[in-house]
Amino acid sequence: MGYTHFDKIAAENGIAIGAAGSETVAIDSDGRIATGADDYDYIITMTSPTLGTSGTFVVAAPGIAGTIEKIYTVLNGAIITGNCGLTFKIGTTGITGGVITILTASSAQGDIDSATPTAANTLAASDYIACTDDGVAGGTSTAQICILIKKT
Fold it and tell me: CA-based angle 83:106:78, to the nearest 5?
């Protein structure tokens, strides 16, 4: 399988996860999402509201049945007050291992963080994915979120 680096795909398709970072996201010749040796069948992206505001935001996953295997965030700017906690759920059920803490000390545009869900991470075709922000971060930064899903 030949892989194309995500930055090229992002440029060609208007998809963004970030300008910098050590994680490589790619798409194989069959159109599946891949990071390293892992192949993914779906990728869902969403943009958070301002990270300094507590609340929940959602994204639909219409027709997608699978297992959430990895969740990535990338900051669009620094956070200033405190660490940012993002908790991911399928509907109202928390995803085990689906929490990302973005540290204030190392925050800057392009900072990538991730979570590897271990249980309660199976989507049915009619589900939605929710993310709850603890509102501690402060400032006006947002984050791009990438959710990698393997078809079941």
Answer: 70
Q: Taking the model in full, what pTM does it have?
A: 0.76
| Under 8 Å between Cβ of 89 and 130 | yes
Q: What is the pLDDT of residues 26-60, one digit of tens each?
A: 555 555 555 554 567 888 999 999 998 899 999 99
Distance from C-alpha of 4 to C-alpha of 95, rounded to nearest angstrom:
30
